[in-house]
Write a structure and sequence with these properties.
- The complex is a heterodimer of chains A (314) and B (424).
- Chain A is built from 12 helices and 9 strands.
- In chain A, helix 1 crosses helix 5.
- The longest helix of chain A is centred in the C-terminal third of the chain and has 28 residues.
- In chain B, a hairpin with a 4-residue loop joins strand 1 and strand 2.
- Classes of the chains: A alpha/beta (314), B alpha/beta (424).
- At the A-B interface, helix 4 of A face helix 6 of B.
Chain lengths: 314, 424
């Protein structure tokens, strides 16, 4: 395995194929380990992992917590509501506090694009971006890729349709970077107001008609439409959105018969996805995504802490 | 006060087209004489320029000062220190301070604080609308009498078309003009970077470049109706410059300026969320930067302003969208402009004209020229001397330069205000 080229995991943009493949291979082995019921509690023994969440997220935080614990780290959750961030403390004050606590691995979720990058300039810990604004969510894209690979046996030359609110989606951006790097054909499907400007330059195709966008797709990845987007007037109504961009059996019929359906959660049933699809074990791999999430996060923690040990030796 | 004679100078006076070796004599704070060979009077202090350029002190058409209201960012005194180091002897201060300069007494406060520096004439803009709130126009007549150089709402666009129409027509009565921040606010709302591939990659809300052209087009139409004079500040896009070029050809009273970031940097400067390059308007794509350079060369742009916008590290060391916009620009105004001279886009006289006589003409000032009998506001600079912009080591309090690390050729050696040396 190649030494990972970064101290932090802030983004997937620019990460080259062999490093992505290594991360996925390692995650795959953790997925098998997790299914076998075994643990590896000595790997991060004595290391402190802090989950610093400035934005609510039960799923991602729990996933990192479990990953850290399975590798033997001391895991601490810092939530915004009880921390001093609400009392006017700046992000960089938080960084010096964390340095004083000798944190080794710092998992950051923040509502602002670039916040983990800013923190990474000031903290001693290895920073893992657990979602920043509308920028990136690297571990989500890795777990999506692992899930796809397990079902399709490969990533190369697959057609992946990412559907819905791409504009506000960090999940979509990380997936675009990873999947185009791994030679997938990536499509964006959604109403023009929810497709970011010049996204084609990231190497994807854009569709505003969902049936055309799903045609012959191997993977259909749905994105969450946040309620406030509708209040913001980008979409006139939930019923209109569901009619044209919600995933139901009729639209899914345009994809390949063996196409899998994914969603990063939490789902808005009846808005971007019909319950019948979300709950169809023959198509939906949403549960497996959650399972792969823990494995991927174990792999990321493992690789970054290996890096830290290697750098400490040098 | 002793007379001063500058010898071995390269005298450059863009207003008259003079660019020749010679001497310049300052007596009683005014330019007494200049020419190829001047006798050295007894008792005169002799400044040997060693072939360096001696030119009129720079006139900065647009700078925000922290005072009143944001003294932690910058005081008038610290701005004057930075201005002197940058060769600036006259500076037009924006009115969107706290409180806004919408009252004659406030305006006079700023004027007096400028006089107290002894090194810098500060010419405040009056607020175009009360409180710079964009609703009711302010007392243009009384503010003009108190010394308002023109009217503006600073970094905020006068969004309401009816208010802008009234401001443009009312300003005519007092021989003045309106300086507009050309950005359609409803289109730009929430945006922090130029819309496009880079903003998409960074996950930052974008401002379409058309927000600038749209406001420029509207205000040109209003200038046509009112026969008023509109001046567009920090113009940064090709589309807006095309509209301004056409309006000038039509004979409308339309002028504009730009600022060094818009012809020296493009949007890639914000890569990796570099908040020091977060500006308003945002940095643009390379095509737009090239269009600004072309408009400087063809005369469409009337002046280069520093667009100085002081910020404290606490305002900038934040996630990109939350950081305040704007860059410190006083100390680098000349150096960045000279980079276009070294790059072959502008002649030295054309570049200096944009910093001296052309803004002077716009404002109706007698300074900005090497004319006998006018106040001796002068800058002496080495055209070739290399230096590097280092945020943290710039003169003055505000260190938020978007040009940190930029290597430049051309550095100020000395600045004189009313014949008195204020820098170097």
């Amino acid at each position: 395995m190649l030494p990972f080229p970064h101290r932090h995991l802030l983004a997937l943009q620019g990460l080259e194929p062999p490093y992505i493949a290594d991360l996925l291979d390692l995650a795959e082995s953790y997925a098998l380990l997790n299914r076998s019921g075994k643990t590896q509690r000595d790997l991060l023994k004595g290391q402190t992992l802090i989950n610093l969440f400035f934005e609510d997220s039960t799923r991602t935080r729990t996933s990192f917590e479990l990953a850290g614990k399975r590798l033997g780290a001391d895991v601490i959750n810092m939530s915004v509501s009880t921390s001093s961030v609400n009392k006017g403390e700046t992000l960089l004050d938080t960084a010096s506090t964390l340095n004083a606590m000798h944190c080794d691995l710092l998992v950051v979720r923040h509502s602002q694009s670039g916040a983990p990058a800013l923190l990474s300039q000031k903290v001693d810990a290895a920073v893992i971006n657990a979602g920043d604004g509308t920028h990136e969510h690297p571990t989500q894209a890795l777990l999506d890729a692992l899930t796809i690979r397990r079902h399709k046996g490969r990533l190369e030359n697959l057609t992946v349709a990412i559907c819905g609110d791409v504009l506000h989606s960090r999940v979509a951006r990380s997936n675009i970077h990873l999947l185009t790097t791994m030679n997938c054909r990536v499509r964006m499907v959604g109403p023009p107001a929810l497709i970011p400007a010049e996204v084609e330059r990231l190497g994807v195709q854009v569709f505003h008609d969902m049936k055309a966008g799903l045609a012959e797709a191997d993977v259909v990845m749905m994105l969450r439409l946040q309620k406030e987007r509708m209040v913001g007037g980008l979409v006139p109504s939930a019923r209109e959105y569901f009619r044209f961009y919600g995933l139901d059996a009729a639209k899914l019929a345009h994809a390949r018969p063996d196409a899998i359906v994914m969603h990063p959660g939490p789902m808005n049933r009846g808005i971007e996805i019909d319950s019948a699809i979300a709950d169809d074990p023959a198509r939906s791999v949403i549960g497996e995504q959650v399972e792969m999430g823990v494995a991927v996060r174990m792999a990321v923690l493992d690789i970054l802490s290996r890096n830290m040990r290697r750098n400490a030796r040098l | 006060m002793r007379d001063t004679i500058f010898v071995n100078a390269r005298l450059v006076d863009p207003a008259s087209g003079l660019d020749a070796p010679g001497s310049l004599l300052v007596s009683q704070g005014v330019i007494a004489d200049h020419g190829g060979t001047l006798g050295i009077p007894d008792d005169a202090e002799v400044v040997d320029c060693g072939g360096a350029v001696l030119a009129p002190g720079l006139i900065d058409l647009r700078a925000a000062l922290g005072e009143p209201g944001a003294e932690y960012r910058e005081t008038i005194e610290s701005a004057a220190e930075a201005a002197a180091a940058g060769g600036i002897t006259t500076l037009c201060a924006l009115p969107d301070t706290q409180p806004a300069l919408d009252d004659p007494a406030l305006l006079q406060f700023v004027l007096r604080r400028g006089e107290a520096t002894g090194s810098l004439s500060i010419l405040p803009y009056g607020a175009a609308t009360k409180g710079c709130a964009g609703k009711e126009i302010s007392e243009f007549g009384l503010l003009r009498e108190a010394g308002a150089v023109a009217f503006s709402d600073g970094g905020k666009a006068i969004a309401d078309a009816r208010t802008m129409r009234l401001a443009l027509s009312y300003a005519r009565a007092f021989g003045s003009f309106i300086v507009q921040h050309p950005e359609e606010p409803s289109l730009a709302r929430g945006g922090v970077a130029t819309e496009g591939e880079l903003a998409t990659r960074l996950g930052l809300p974008g401002i379409p470049p058309a927000a600038e052209a749209m406001m420029v087009a509207r205000d040109i139409a209003l200038a046509r109706i009112t026969r008023g004079h509109v001046h567009f500040a920090h113009v940064s896009t090709a589309a807006a410059l095309d509209l301004i070029r056409a309006a000038k050809a039509e004979g409308l009273a339309v002028t504009c300026d730009t600022a060094p970031p818009y012809f020296d940097l493009n949007e890639t400067a914000i890569g990796d969320f570099r908040t020091y390059a977060k500006l308003s308007p945002p940095l643009r794509r390379e095509e737009d930067r090239l269009a600004v350079v072309a408009a400087l060369a063809d005369g469409t742009i009337d002046a280069i302003a520093s667009d100085h916008q002081p910020a404290d590290p606490d305002d900038k060391r934040l996630p990109f969208a939350q950081a305040s916009a704007g860059g410190a620009g006083l100390a680098t105004l000349l150096g960045i402009t000279l980079a276009r001279v070294h790059g072959g886009d502008l002649s030295l006289t054309a570049a200096l004209a944009l910093l001296t006589c052309r803004p002077a003409e716009l404002l109706g000032l007698e300074s900005g020229r090497l004319t006998r009998g006018t106040p001796a506001d002068l800058v002496l600079f080495d055209l070739e001397r290399a230096w590097k912009v280092e945020a943290g080591k710039l003169p003055g309090k505000a260190q938020n330069s978007p040009f940190d690390g930029r290597a430049l050729e051309g550095r100020v050696r000395g600045t004189w205000k009313n014949g008195r040396r204020v820098f170097g």
